[in-house]
């Protein structure tokens, strides 16, 4: 009688695929409703209503925007390297999903003792996504925007890594999940307040939000490295930007205010980004 060993492998593969689908759906839905939250909040700040006509209170507005963007075409005229130009948004999207799989949660794919090292290693690769997108667009504005973004990212990432290594030194471990559970009843943001305040501004520069929005330069330029992208490619870059805001909020909640109500604290940090 031959004993088959395919069943356990099939079960593990099925669980991995379920986690992967959960990560993909969670990131896409989270980005969709985060854009709605930002438009509602900015509308309230400006004493206007914001999106409110699509379905109930404008809840279907992100999906209608996604349908509109993905139905549009993308121009690639005068592009010197078309394959690199089209590959760059997918690289950013892949890095976003990879970072989401590292974050400890029910949808986390990876489980190692060095989650902190894995997170910052993958996060550093986002420089290549920005540089490749602007460089291969073969436009002056794109190249200048990419150079501005890369110079800012490299300079601020040095400080971010030093702050993170200091926090890891307090933990004496690189497992983010264990450090998250250690903060039940005692948040690190109280006795590491100087690191927490520095992290707030470094995370603003990491995701390119004002006043560190040099990657796009919407206040002083037409746009930045993504000026030549449109349609589905622009949607991927848009998902990368807002998805990174959500993930940075989750990581900050893990690092400094772990314990109960994890997602509520991450929502507060996302509100701060807006």
Describe the structure.
The protein is mainly α. The chain has helices at residues 6-45, 61-71, 82-102, 115-124, 126-135, 140-171, 176-181, 188-191, 193-207, 232-256, 262-273. It is 68% helix and 0% strand. The radius of gyration is 20 Å and the shape is globular.
Compute the number of helices: 11
List the helices and strands in order: HHHHHHHHHHH
Secondary structure class reads mainly alpha
Low-confidence segments, ≥5 residues, pLDDT <50?
none
| Overall residue-averaged pLDDT value | 77
Total number of β-strand segments? 0
The 3D shape can be described as globular
N→C terminal distance: 64 Å
Strand content: under 5%
Radius of gyration: 20 Å
* Helix proportion range: 55-70%
Q: Major sheet, described briefly?
A: none
Helix and strand topology:
Blueprint: H1 6-45, H2 61-71, H3 82-102, H4 115-124, H5 126-135, H6 140-171, H7 176-181, H8 188-191, H9 193-207, H10 232-256, H11 262-273
Helix pairs in contact: 1-2, 1-10, 2-10, 3-4, 3-5, 3-10, 5-6, 6-9, 9-10, 10-11
Describe what is shown at a glance.
The chain has 274 residues and is an all-alpha fold. The protein contains eleven helices and no strands.
